[in-house]
Amino acid sequence: TPSDCKFESLDELNQDLGPNGQYGRSKLAAILYSRYLANHLTKGDFPNILVNATHPGFVDTKMSKEDIHEPYPLGGYAMSIGMAPLKKNIMQGCVSTVFAATKTEGSGQYICPPAVPESGTELAQDAELGERLMKLTRELVSEKTKSDS
């Protein structure tokens, strides 16, 4: 994720950061959403709702075997073939998500392999950034879904 990520405008979201930057920003948003919702739901009227972000790890999927070749023609082959022995299978990749759905009692966590809550980056811990993300989300969703009636 770029260190200057601010979630301040649609123009910022539409900036082409390349595949790694886009992916990183989407993961950051997922963590911030979970922490925002945990703070505003579970510490409010809905204490029994759990909202967490998960990270599967480096998993052997279509994305890491085939789709990687488009953004990284040469490096994609190193990822899909050379790194294959290091990748998790699908069942190993789902451990963090299954843990989040069945075992943890915490909310607002970032759960990483093998099922360990981690703090994430400095940006992922920035509550003000999470507030800006939700403000921008509300504005964009309202704008895109408003009706003329």
Question: How would the blueprint of this fold be written?
Answer:
Blueprint: H1 10-13, H2 18-42, E1 53-54, H3 62-65, H4 73-82, H5 90-93, H6 95-102, E2 110-112, E3 116-118, H7 127-145
Q: Would you tell me the overall average pLDDT?
A: 91
Give a count of the beta strands, DSSP E runs of length 2 or more. Answer: 3
Order of helices and strands: HHEHHHHEEH
Major beta sheet summary? 3 strands, mixed
Order of strands across the main sheet: 1-2-3
Which class of secondary structure composition applies to the elements? mainly alpha
Shape descriptor reads: globular
Helix fraction by DSSP (H/I, runs of at least 4): 40-55%
Question: Into which percentage range does the β-strand content fall?
Answer: 5-15%
The number of helical segments is: 7
Radius of gyration: 17 Å
Q: State the end-to-end distance.
A: 40 Å
List low-pLDDT spans: none
Provide structural commentary.
- The chain is mainly alpha-helical and 149 residues long.
- Helix content is 50%, strand content 5%.
- It has helices at 10-13, 18-42, 62-65, 73-82, 90-93, 95-102, 127-145; strands at 53-54, 110-112, 116-118.
- Strands 1-2-3 form a three-stranded mixed beta sheet.
- Helix 2 (18-42) crosses helix 7 (127-145).
- The radius of gyration is 17 Å and the shape is globular.
- The relative contact order is 0.17.
- The model has no long low-confidence stretch (mean pLDDT 91).
